[in-house]
Amino acid sequence: MTDQYRTGQEAEGAVRGVPGTHGEGSAGPGEEVADAWAELVATARRTVADGLVVGTSGNVSVRVGDTVLVTPSGVPYDRLAPADVTGVDLTGRQVIGTLVPTSELPLHLAVYRTTGARAVVHTHAVHATAVSTLVDELPAIHYMTAALGGPVRVARYATYGTPELAESTLHALDGRTGCLMRNHGTLTHGATLAQAYDRTAQLEWMCRVWLTASSVPGLTPTLLTPDQLAEAGERLRGYGQRG
Q1: Which amino acids are annotated catalytic?
Q2: pTM
Q3: HEC profile of 27-40
Q4: 3 state SS of 11
């Protein structure tokens, strides 16, 4: 095992006694938070490996009880270790760690306070960012649009890290689990980090498909109708393994 995932004891020590991180009969706060932090770091590294972010752009968070674990500001993901666990409460007060949380903390907290999200992924994916500069809504190029709740809106531009950006993003997310952010990137949320990440990857893929199809001279992409999207959404609700 590498040094960065030795035993998780550093993270357990950092969070011992933090309220709201476990329920009756569950693992102690140290173990639960350490496991969530390890998954968060793995997800953040995946955004780099899959080309969805460059350097330290983008950010990832996951909610454990009333604590939100977030990637710290300006720290390359490959350098994050268990002892670097960073967490805040729902007001933004830091309760775990000493590293400064992501500059997009207001955005993440706004999503948690407004939706039932348990995880949030924000990226600067190339194709999605390009689409955000062209349209106010990603055209319904594929039935996976329904998996995000419907046509994906573009949040109006606001400076990163500001309450204004959080407000515009929440408006674009109304009834959706993902949106584009004008001249900025993407934001998706889910019940788990895996689900939030999958939605990010699907959104980037749909943006790439639409850009590719739209670039063919003399042809216009065929789009799905609202009825077709609704039918796809019904089928998607029963997709996958039961239980």
Answers
A1: 104
A2: 0.88
A3: CCHHHHHHHHHHHH
A4: helix
